[in-house]
Queue: 4 jobs
Job 1
Amino acid sequence: MQIRVQSEPFDAGTELNSFAQTRTDVGAVVSFTGVVRDTDGNLREMLIEHYPGMTQSAITKIAQEATDRWALADCLVIHRHGPLKPGAPIMMVATAAAHRAAAFEAADFLMDYLKSRAPFWKKEITDDGADWVAAKDADEDALGRW
Amino acid sequence: MNVMYFAWVRERIGVPQEKVETEAATVNDLIAELTAREDRYAAAFADTSALRVALDQELSDFDAPLTGVQEVAFFPPMTGG
């Protein structure tokens, strides 16, 4: 299990290629990359704040639960903080399991929990001003699936 | 204890963290104490349904006791991912 909280960019392709390479009992690798989206064409940057004392432990707890529940061979979470430009990668998860159902489900679970239970907050700086991104009820409701 | 604020809660209160001397028994009691101090706290804590709290870096509840707690953090619902 690898958890990385960083301000530096990462290369999702490079990360994926080196993920779970030491295991030969893996039949399925699933990955998700979250990217800064400029919905209205006026986004200058997205500022991601986090709670340094809590972030690593909160993500580790979520990743450990996914690993136990889906018997993952490996699990990777990278999440960035700081100012990010449109199109930049924000975060990435990868899961490795014997079969694809477990790898897909575990990645989905990780994303649902990282969205609502990892201590990050997004602020959009646009041409028109700056606003904190509000959490969506649908994101909280999604946790009920698990 | 150390009290920390994140995102718009930090912006409304004006500091990222501060030492607070308090005898508050629960998180709700601490909020009542801070709210009575100054308008900026009242503005931040006006609607606790829009807030979350962590005690010693673990998500918790507003009626949770503060016994032995060293760090309290207030923030809006998280928007990771």
Job 2
Amino acid sequence: MKTIQDLPVLIIVIPLGFAVIIPLVARFNRLLPWIIASTITFFCFLTSISLLITVLETGKISYWLGGWEPPWGIEYAIDYLNAFVLAVVSFIAFIVSLYSRRSVEMEINEYKQSAFYSIYMLFITGLMGIVITGDIFNIYVFLEISSLAGYALIAMGRKRDALVASYNYLILGTIAATFILIGIGYIYTATGTLNIADLQERLPALFHSKMVLVALAFFTVGLSLKLALFPLHTWLPGAYTHAPSVVSCIMAATATKVGVYAMLRIIFGVFKIEFDIHFIPIANILIVISSMAIIAGSAFAIAQTNLKRMLAYSSVGQIGYIVLGAVLANQAAMTGSIIHILNHALMKGALFMVVGCIVYKTGIEDISGLNGMSKKMPFTMAVFTVAGLSMMGVPLTVGFVSKWYIAIGALNAGMWYLIPVIITGSLLSAVYIWRIIVNIYFPEEFPGHELQYTDGGTRITDHKSQYSEAPWSMLGPTMALAALCIYFGISATAPLYIAEKAAVMLLQ
Amino acid sequence: METVYSSIPFLAMVTPLCAIALIIIFNNKPNLRESWTILASLIKFGLIVSMLPTILDGKVIECFIVTVLPGLDIKFKIDALGIFFALTASFLWILTSFYSIGYVRTLNEHAQTRYFICFAAAISATIGVAFSANMFTTYLFYEMITFSTYALVAHKETPEARQGAKVYFVFLFGTSVAFLLSAIFLTYYATGTLDFSNQGIFSDARGKGLSNVFLIVTFGLFIAGTSKAAMMPFHAWLPRAMVAPTPVSAFLHAVAVVKSGIFVVVKIVLHLFGINLLAELRLGIVLAYCASFTMIVSSVIALRQDNLKARLAYSTVAQLSYVIFGVALLTPSGITGSIMHIVIHAFGKITLFFCAGAIYAVTHKTKVSELDGIGKKMPFTMVAFSLASLSLIGIPPLGGFISKWYLAMGVIEAGQIPIIAVLVISSILNACYFLPIVYKAFFKELPHGETAERNEAPALMVVPLVLTAIGTLSLFFVPSIFLDLAKMVVANLN
């Protein structure tokens, strides 16, 4: 019974501990880091599921670190929202680490591989820490852990550009973290507490204070940078493009989602909804910005020739959807936003994993490299099609579910003019996705120049028509995500139930 | 109205999907592979016919499949209108399957497996549209038709096919997302439901305080969103889609795809908005004028087409607008005529396309101007062609007369006597673009160097087209089941 009560802290401490152990044991066996990473993330996933079930039964879990009572000590507070996000993050972390072995072997220098798994564990720890904690300063601490780990992961890319991208992200990420820290400083000065539940109680009395207003401004900008909200997205395309494929997967599927979570928690949890609407029209400002993000992100994606960069810009657009749903601040839209955290993680994760498979098999990252690939890698391409249709928001895929809720939410908020924005975003994503799907199955022409294919590291000259699928250790997890894209698209009731409860809770 | 719960509709929908799996497995054995298509088409037709007595008894069949999210169910509800369309589509699928086999083998087409897979997916989705109980299910299968037929339009993989398929996709998917989906959002937001009802979801719109502007905009979005109905200006995809192999043009672009669009329009008018509301808003008459415009203009364009399939395509655009025209009159006879025209045009136009395909398969001729004297070489084909074109012109004793009769009655009931002129002019135009072909085929000499020896297409192609031609005849003499169903639809509206 004791251990079950300690689960909230174990889910943080265990991966943190193993991050240190992995480099030590890597000397004994090359496979050991991967095995440990997969086992630990699987443990985290199981733990998060059991936490989710407990939350669904009891409503809220509060864990006091070191037994100190909340306003003084650090509290891990788990409710519907973070139990849901925690499950998403740990699930994706597990799937990606299953997937990672072959991809890492190929894309990352051998002597860095154990370091990769170690930093990967740190990264996951940071993300889960942000989600699970009920202390606003703790959020900052874990944010820094995950960010620093993230810079290191991106810098592991094969090309020198990765270093530039990582440095770029480092600068902007540090600015974001500083802004958030300043925001925390202001509200601490105003209220004298760092506990989120405590802040919720004390802040409303201080809503007229300029200091609280300034704090919100710093939070908004810092978090927008962190979650890559247009026009503060500039670090993201470079980072996703040049990072190793596995890192792009995990960052696209989880890091920005956790950023969104932090934004939901701080803007709607710490500050109350009426503050965001009545005292300062932050919600209206964000509606405009996120609409711009939806359109601009998708439009930029159309212009790309590099597959990873295209998906990165598409993420910018999708983040726009999540933020738009959140700031509309009604139940349907908020539900759509929260469920899109899961849905986007599934589809973008699947798409980046497909890219990883293609890079593993052929070494090319260009969109034109996908021409006629349906013969060579039929399963991978099928996953791309499913996840791509999901991005387009076709019914029976997850993309439709979130779009439906956000659109109905926009109408409920009386903002019918957002419907064209949502629809345009869908149509633009149809342009960049469908173009590729058509080229996969109806190739225009085979690329004239002989591409050098690398088959798991060994260079070969190969013809596209030959069947040569990615290894099952990569294909399996990829297909699992695609299957979930469909499953949760056909029967979305279970995640919706949780998302709806979380939305109601945030909007109280 | 009594409701019967049954899983037959679901089975009818998934039968072709099961066939897809078998088609993939037996990829390398053409005869076995094709037998699955045929078997699935027969089973499916049998399943649909088995539901007919229940429907004719005045009951409706319901079949619940899954709740996607609260408020959005995938659900089937088969009423007279649904079974009417399903019966037409599934019967013609049987004939098309035989014809397809003959066609792809005569011409030795590539990628035959993909062809049959996509065909089966398209027919499955068509049945889904016919059976859907709510607008969400309709939308879902409507999109599925677009996706599954894309590969059929692009089948030849030539630059023209690629371009045609692109236009096809941009029009069908673009409008359905931009307009149809928006309209669905608005409908759900305003009424909280998407379930079709005989009075129309919006029938108590006044009670809910919906403004006229809202209703007019929503209706406009719905009509613009169903570009499969090919009403101008959303018709451009249809002639471009003629790059597809002829059986595809025949079945999909005379029966399944365009008729799903038409079917959705009919559903929107009858079961979403309801005739009373549309009459009150005077939207019916606006729609009728739009349809009249399309009827005349596309017939005029058809006159100028030398490519046989392009001429048939523009004729299809015109004929589809007959259906919209009829239902837009909002009168009992108009609606009956409109629904009858769905089946009558399906039989007529599929015959014409089958003939065009047979001519192409045997002689590789695609132009009207090359058809001099072809009636001597291909008498069965051209007699069938003549029957079908006479039916579409509306000459008794062929099926087309019945629908035109009801349409004319509908105009009189609606008190819009001037638009009878539209029917007359468009019938004359129909005659102008069909009869010269018949005349050339039978009364002109063959071009120099061609002998008049009999040279028909293989039996797999000729038999289906003769059967559909006989169908156009028999629809005049024994229209009973279809007419009964159409009248039931009208009777249920009140």
Job 3
Amino acid sequence: MQTNMWALYAREVKRFQKIWIDTVFNPIVSIGLYLGVFGIVTSGREIGSLPYLTFVYTGLLAMLIVNTSFSNPSFALVIARNLGNMIDIQLAPIPAWRIGVAYAFAALTRGVTTVLIAVVGTVWFIPAMGIPAHPLALVAALFLTGLEFGMLGVAFGFLAKNFEALTFMNTFVMQPMIFLAGVFYPVATLPAPWNTVSLFNPIHHNVNFFRYAITGYSDVNPLFSFLVILGLSAVLFAVMQWTVVRNIKMK
Amino acid sequence: MLPLKINNVTKIFKNPKGQEFKAVDGVSLDIEPGKIYGLLGPNGAGKSTLINMIGGLLLPNQGSIELFGLDVAKESSKTKQLIGVVPQEIVMEMAFTVEEVLYYFSGMYGVPRSERKARIKAVLEDLGLEDKTHERARNLSGGMKRRLMVAKAILHRPKLVILDEPTAGVDVSLRQKIWSLVQRLNAEGTTILFTTHYLEEAEQLCESIALINHGKLIKSGRLKDIQQEFSKNTIHFELFDRTAAPLAGVSEVGVEYEYPITADLATDMAKLTSHYNHNLKSIRSEAASLEHIFLKLTNH
């Protein structure tokens, strides 16, 4: 069933497995370094009843899935465009909507794989980490966040004409949004109006819902964050399909 | 049902200044099943644009293309399944092994997982690449990469295989291998359409040809019929000294000269021999070469 779509999905999964040191372990090493620094500097501090290191850790895991899910399709597609490999997708009898879905699910797979490996490797160093507070919410957070930023990566991978555009997006849009999303601090502690402005940063809701699922701590109503993620996923699905169709269709 | 039917197709591109350029101009062509068909023309003639429209990558501005009765513009997912295209450029996942390249690409054409490995093994044996199965694609030589491109296009067993300049820039030995592969595929019932600007290649392989220049179809049909048409009533000859005064009615076609038979072959040959005498390097009235036909049709 839909063999062609799953073959494209499997090819994209194989691609990141081929370069696993770069795609999987590189971001995990970054997380390890963050934890090392924050562990030393913030030892003993708490946010509410949550140790600060646990607070940062859950934010870093959310940042990890956002970054890796976005990077996987966006880089793959820009590289394909630059090497001329895009013709493989254009010639194959795969309807455009399935192309987007295959890339987005491959991104989700990389995001979830990276997070799971990161957790296995680092959770032992985090205080007060036990069974996730809301396991079902955690599954939803992983699935929706991976898919959401996978779809954004697909859309941007098709829109970006070269690496400069991709680097621009990463440096000037994605990274500031991630760093201002409450990964390292609770947005409620920001002075007005920035605490309100932060609520309009969509990544804040991914970080918040992810943290809530693991620890039970939430900056804003977790249901609100969940609905924002759900709504944004629907919008990004439409945007992704529009960009894929626009780029794959005959001109 | 015809494998390929091209009806009055035109493709217009715009340059950055907004000026229009007709890459393909009102081309109509029918390709019959089971044939090897050559699409010939110089670089920039419009061959690849036509191939890209057949492959479902470009949409004609005018006209239609049907593959096995299906309109390419309306049912491209179905038509793409029926054809295998070998693009001019070598493109593949260079980090993958040969087997991986073929495994995933054939999957994208719907070949079931259970069948893929057996098909890959058979095709690689056919192409003399069986000992490269687990080699990374990037480590293959240029010729092997070219063969791998062919393997990608035929794994899903298409009814029509389209090869865009398959022998461009390859050595004589590899060219022979690609020719024999094309002939073998054809013998198994696959219709072949290939583009080339090597005219001797088309003479070796094709039953039928289409000549295209400046986006326009200038001649199409059975190669033998075209050769007969262009060789009848003419004598072809070459001269040692090309500055010699020409005989009235003689025209220059490439390195050759052509003279229309006005009386009969013997009388006109005698007239030429008498005029040019020992300046004649060669003289014949045999079938015209494709190169000769092409030069004549393009007024070179």
Job 4
Amino acid sequence: MDLSHIFNLKKSLHIAFCAVFIACSSLAGRAQEHDNTNDPHVTRSEMNAPHEEKEEDISATILHHIADAHEWHFWGHGEHKVSIPLPVILWTENGLVAFMSSKHDENDHGTEIFEEKGQQLVNYHGKYYYPAATKDAHGAYVALDENAVPNNAKPFDISITKNVVSLFLSIIFLVLIFTKVAKSYRVREGKAPKGLQSLLEPIILFVRDDIARPQLGHRYAAFMPYLLTVFFFVWLNNLMGLIPFFPGGANVTGNISVTMMLALCTFILTTINGNKSYWGHVFTPHVPWWLYPLMIPVEIIGLFTKPIALMIRLFANITAGHILILSLISLIFILKSVLVAGIAVPFVLFISVIELVVGFIQAFIFTILSALFIGMAVAEEHVEHH
Amino acid sequence: MTILALNPLVSPDPGLFIWSTVAFLLLFFLLSKFAWKPIVKALDERERSIEDALAKAEMAKQEMAKLTSENEQLLKLARAERDEMLKEARILKDKIVGEAKDAAQLEGAKMLEKAQQEISSQKAAAVAEIKGKVAELSIQIAEKVLRQQMADKSKQEALVSDLLKDVKLN
């Protein structure tokens, strides 16, 4: 009893210690960011930057790590960089432009204009822009806004980025896994499940019995394919995001474009399956008529807030987990001592285990809320209101 | 969009949105056709067959219980019948034995009577024969006596008395 008390005390001290450090470093980073708003890329260009600028570099590095990229980077910089270049596909004013990302990645400060199929472009921090008419103070052909994001016009970017490759890898894995499972159902018909089949069957049954059936009632069968697909897609991508190296490491479900797409699918399904009573609730809510001008807009806003909440929830949870892990690792660089690894690495391990659970829980929550929204749209009204 | 575009982290990227839509729809159609349909069907079928099997087992159990109770009933009936039969048999046996005893007694009595009759008739016959014999002997004696009388009177008398001494009538 005494020992566990001491252990708990120690653990909470550790947590407090780390929390203080994270808070301090983020405050420092913020202050630094404020100082450097007029030349934010200095930190990247100057490798011998002083100590304060190094800290700024860390928050930029973290954001860089959770963002999408035109290459699959492994390690090293410049000459010693090891990465998989990915195709860049841009829909520009001069039509479709495509090239490998390795072709124009030496200069990502926007100081050099390159031409591809007669289209002038600049690479600024791994993104492609039309060059600004004039150079800024650092010789870059960009015009930055107050968030240090270029105001330049952009070609429409439909590149095969790291996230796109990761997405396609994940769907290849899913198709391979589940066609194999489906095959074992055919081969072992009427027998007990075995191997991969017995591993995934409880999860499929979990989706059916604990997600689809309670929310959708007897109409669950029609929505099973969608719910199963969403569940396993989100779960696998959450897990792949936790693997620090290829084929994982892309922050797919922590990217708002992907969660937006998923939430939009649920929204579309909800909208096209909405029955009379669902729309009745929206346009003729059960309130006195003089409340209609208030209630109808609220109900209409409610239609959109549900998928938006879905989108933000998944994105924020996964992104937060990634940022937390990267921040803990960054403590080593912020404190400039390899000894910090003795604290940081166990914490990273601890958070990673939590993230494993979060990966499942978020997949579950996304699926159950999708089922709930669809269930609300298809539910029959049992009591007639007048 | 301008509000979301404030931070690059929360500004959706149209290219990735398009690709993820393509990827997800592709995944959805592939899995629906080649995975979920057969899997869900197989699961439903298996559940149905398990339910069927359980229902059948329950039915068989009830049938079994019914049969057992019927058997027991039958056994009980059979036992009762056997007891009844045994009882009847015992009664019958007693009756038969009693009858046989009666008959035997009757027969015995008859035979005894017959024997007595036989004896008495034999006795009568014997007495008659003895009487005859006695008569014959008497005649012979009388003859001899008469002959001796004819010869010597004293001797005749002695003879008569001798003879009379020998002859003993029972």
